[in-house]
Amino acid sequence: MRGPHVPVVLVLDQAGRHDFRSLARPVNITLVALPPYAPELNPVEQLWLFLRERFLSHRLLADYDAIVAACCEAWNALTLERLRSLYAYPWIAKVTS
Question: Cα-atom radius of gyration of the chain, to the nearest Å?
């Protein structure tokens, strides 16, 4: 279904730089705000935290290519077991099984 009358729910994370209070929106869009800090509702935050802590922090990289190479190296170091441990929230198992 498509069109201006189809109900839409847009989930917002309430990050400090995301101000949606003055956002003009069509009447068919409902905004649902997550709590200000809820990493268990946005598991990718745990992934970025892990990558920053283990691979990407406290490094001085020479240029753009070095940044891309470091990010690729960090990403390629992830294992399926590590991803499972980062995303081991009970609600995820319920919605993915």
Answer: 18
1 and 25: one domain?
Answer: yes
Are 28 and 4 part of one and the same domain?
yes
How far is residue 15's CA from residue 44's CA, in Å, rounded to a whole number?
Answer: 14
Q: What is the pLDDT of residues 16-66, one digit of tens each?
A: 666 667 778 888 888 887 777 776 777 788 888 899 999 999 889 999 999
Task: Report pLDDT for 90.
Answer: 74
62 CB-contact burial (10 Å; exposed 0-12 / middle 13-18 / buried 19+)? exposed
| The total number of structural domains that make up the chain | 2
How far apart (Å, rounded) are the C-alpha atoms in residues 31 and 7?
11
Nearest Cα residue to 51 out of 77, 28, 29? 77
Amino acid type, 34: L
3-class DSSP state of 32:
strand
Beta-bridge partners for 12: 33
